[in-house]
Fold each of these.
Amino acid sequence: DCSAFWVADREHLINAMSILPEYLRNSASESGAVVDYRDWHIQLGRRFRALKLWSVMRSYGISVLQRHIREQVEWAQEFGDWVRADERFEITAPHPLSLVCFRLRAGDEANLAVMRSLNASGKIYLTHTKIDGKISLRLAIGGTYTEQRHVENAWQLIKEAAANY
């Protein structure tokens, strides 16, 4: 399957196809400073998704993939425990898998400032969302090469960035 688009004005295509959750909103895309191609296509077709899953399973094997997922879920639970233990922060949503949503109690501006500071550092990258109308930060633990030391380092960087709040 293949789809091709030729458009004179990309804005019409983007407006027709856009699904923009809060965590994908950013100033570079909104200002037009970058071309964001995520809305330029019919979302990933079933055949291609199946091929990607088959390739991962074939490359790693089921037992390695299972161990990888279990480790990262465990690290997310540990990260959540660290967040709960720090009175400046709160967990904002259940995290049964490897995405942890949390926030500084200091408010939306503090959360956005911490996120921007961390993202600008190039050391870690957080996204955000809104839960109950309030900004929450999102730490996704699920990269192929993520190790426990990376999660520990991320928490240290987050605490340092939040030192003023």
Note: The first helix runs from residue 10 to 17.
Amino acid sequence: MGPPISVVVSRGDVAESRHEVHAVAVRDGRVVEAAGDPGLVAFLRSSAKPVQVLPLARETRELSGEEIAVASASHGGGDEQLRAVRSLLARAQASEEDLECGAQDGSRLNHNCSGKHAAMLLLAELRGWPRGGYRLSDHPVQREIARVVAEVADVRESTLEPAIDGCGVPTYALSLERMAQMFGRLATGAIEGSERVVAAMRGHPDLLLGPVGVDVSVMKAIDGAVAKGGAEALLCVGLADGTGMALKVMDGSWRGLGPATGAFLGLPELRRTPLFNSRGDEIGRISAV
């Protein structure tokens, strides 16, 4: 156990900025490594997506790996990603207009959470629930998801701290230690439906890829890993041996997450990121110390 990871942004030989990153690793229900505060509380944000899709994965066996993967993604709007979103919408007998995530680049389909929202529409369709307002906390879709989040986190549902995520659905605050435990359980298939979700994410990592992609880099670097990033620079990781990890950059800056992840997980290819200017010249570095 030690202090938070310090990520230094250097221009030339001068340290210009620093990011403080808290990280924890949990195995068999106990903290095995920590940098900073394992009890630090943060919102799951998009790191919850592999859990939010679990009710749908449990409901139907007809989903493809691509559909489950894009429902777990913060996607970048690529052709293959949008094709999988449209497939989910077709199964739900829904259209882009039914998505309640708001628009991105002029389209709700392009929103990086459209896969998750399409999956929620499909869950409502399969359960016979009303389609409208599926994003709201009192809708049966969100009540079901809250129950599953509590199940995977091994907490009482009444203790979940809710707020509204950037795409309009509820998000929940948990300690980093609890988030790490969640992903360790997901990675080993200890939760009903998690084997399908994890297999889809591992099998189609490029469908998960968004503008940052630290989670995809971790999955490609570590055999059997599952990882998902969330807004405000959160990353949750589960390893095949049941170890779960969670990292949070305190100032919410994504640029600190890759180097901190490289340092904590022992991935040298992530530990140092070159810093470029607008001309493409390398003028510094972002590195964990």
Note: The CA atoms of residues 198 and 229 lie 15 Å apart.
Amino acid sequence: MKKVIKTAIVAIVLFATSIQVNAQKIAHISVDSLLAVMPESQAAKKAAQDYYNQLQGQVVSMQKELQTKYQDYQQNQANYTDLVKQTKQKELNDLNQRIQDFQTQAQQDIQKKNDDLTKPVYQKAKKAINEVAKEKGYKYVLDTSSGVVLYSDPSDDIMDAVRKKLGIDPNAKPAMDNSTPTSGSSTAPTN
């Protein structure tokens, strides 16, 4: 009987040890919050805004040209022959179409530029998260900013450790968000 009890105790201890060894350490971080305090993010936002302003300036210039030509057409159309009227109307329509095409292409270019600027920042953050996870022995790190995790048992928030790894003051506040007016989302690119 003592042998059976002793065997049962050893089995329970081994089972408990096995469960503990197989337990997965899980941590979480808000990647969006981390990106918001990274100086590189602010530089990327400024560069994206400058690019947007440059393209917007070109659109404004093209629209002024269209407006000037349209006003000229309105003022002088009574003096134009039918052929000149048709030519002027076609010129106005062509310019209007060029403006629309430029705006469409500009939106795509702005999105690409924004992606190109934010991808290295995201990769730097991801690298720091990976390094902290490995240093602290985490098997999984969840991104709480994505809203995908509906429930989780309490886990460790590694925000402070990642900020430290990146050399960011733990008390740093995110800069005011003067988002670049793009049609794209602010979510970081996935890898």
Note: The longest helix spans residues 82-136.
Amino acid sequence: MVPRILIVMLIPGEISSWLNQTNKELCLRYCAYWISLEGRPAVSNTSNIKIGIPKSNVFSGDQLDTLMQRVDDGEPL
């Protein structure tokens, strides 16, 4: 089974406010949150689906490392 996660990033309307890219870095400002979709039932509605994401599920580099390690160890997300 392939793990599925949903990542939602909060961004302002002006792209220059949240993204800066140079030859040396890619900097994203504001915040992203994640939630595992594992075990969620299939739905027939594909246009509007509400999913609650806890604010404690901040998606960061450290969190990505943790998620990847869990997948590698066969643990649930």
Note: Helices lie at 61-73.
